[in-house]
Amino acid sequence: MHTTRGDLVIERPHTAKSSPLRAWSAADVLAIDEITAAAPLGQPGRMLIVNDEFGALSCAFASVDPTIWSDSASSRAAIDHNLVVNGLEPITADRLVRGHEQPNAEFDTIVVRLPKTSALLRYQLTAIAAIAGPNTKVIGAAMARHIHTSTVKAFEDLIGATTTSRATRKARLIHSTPEGASGDAPAPRESSFVTADGLNVVEMPGTFSSGHVDVGSALLLQVLTEQAVPPGAGSVVADLGCGNGILSAGIARSWTHANFELLDVSDLAVAAATRTWQANDLGDRMTAHAVDGFAATRTATVDVVITNPPFHQGHAADGELTDRLLADAARVLRPNGVAYVVAQRHLHLHTRLRQWFSQADVVSAHPSHVVVVARR
């Protein structure tokens, strides 16, 4: 990666070197170059970096000890990895704000890599507006195809007067001038809905499938409740990519003897899943962790894996990410353990699963999605 600050090595962990996916984008380079050129002696002062995906921004401005606000455990791991690769110090606890937390310090420069969902962006901009002073530079960065009229309007509504740069290498910057009074940043606002079978589902900004049960989760829930045999006493059920917790909460009412581990890269998702569990009075047999897949799970310690796995990282389709998670699901399962996995039919899930499982059978007949039961 070449910028006006020199060469940085920005790697994409768990990705083959032959992959066309990069760990940085033209939006990162554009933001780095503009901030560096505009700042006195190239130093942007007190800095907040929001949604840095792999560490391009964090590495470029490491000399000013920026505060990092990130809702992704995998991104935080990638940032630390690339800081070390470039001979820089990893993020310290006092400079890290997790997704369900809010920054409350004063900053001279705030740069926001646009997240995938508008709900998460609006929540983050609301928090930024509360701490941005009249002289704070607020900059949004993204590829041009991801900046819509509604994106610019969100900056205008929540921060202040807003302009956009001309496209450079298919990337743009958004510049906003703060107008509101500073104060404490607001906590993320919860929302909720009730499913047809009476399950209370709590959501946080940016959680998957807002306001309804998505097709894949609905199909997987149907298979789990109608076809799956509830595991025995003391069994461990891992919900990989738990989102708002709908899968675990949906089966916990009948799988009364199992213990549940809810895993998601998103802090906000984990917070939502925890609240969903509590809202349905499901007891104390659940733990939830913001973690990159099964990175913290020991081999052969899980009896059942349930998952509606991700096939994207950020805006990019990432088949290697999915395959890594599915391979790790096989690793953590005990002998005779079982995984219930749902995905769109065209992704050939059953073929992929047979790389790591001795048996993988399609058990649903939906026109767009399949549920596959895979066994060790």
Q: Taking strands numbered 1, 2, ... along the chain, how are they ordered across the largest sheet?
A: 5-4-3-6-7-9-8
Average of per-residue pLDDT values = 92
CATH architecture of the largest domain: 3-Layer(aba) Sandwich
Oligomer: single chain
Q: How would you describe this protein?
A:
With 376 residues, the protein is of the alpha/beta class. The chain has helices spanning 26-38, 56-60, 73-85, 118-131, 149-158, 215-226, 246-252, 267-279, 319-332, 349-353, and strands at 2-3, 6-7, 47-50, 67-70, 96-98, 109-113, 137-143, 160-164, 171-178, 191-194, 200-203, 236-240, 259-264, 286-290, 302-307, 312-313, 316-317, 333-344, 359-362, 369-375. Strands 5-4-3-6-7-9-8 form a 7-stranded mixed sheet, sandwiched between helices.
Fold blueprint:
Elements (H helix, E strand, L loop, with lengths): L1 E2 L2 E2 L18 H13 L8 E4 L5 H5 L6 E4 L2 H13 L10 E3 L10 E5 L4 H14 L5 E7 L5 H10 L1 E5 L6 E8 L12 E4 L5 E4 L11 H12 L9 E5 L5 H7 L6 E6 L2 H13 L6 E5 L11 E6 L4 E2 L2 E2 L1 H14 E12 L4 H5 L5 E4 L6 E7 L1
Helix pairs in contact: 4-5, 6-7
Please name the defining characteristics of this protein.
single chain, 376 residues, alpha/beta, Rossmann fold, 7-stranded mixed beta sheet, 26% strand
Question: In a nutshell, what does this entry contain?
Answer:
The protein is built from 10 helices and 20 strands.
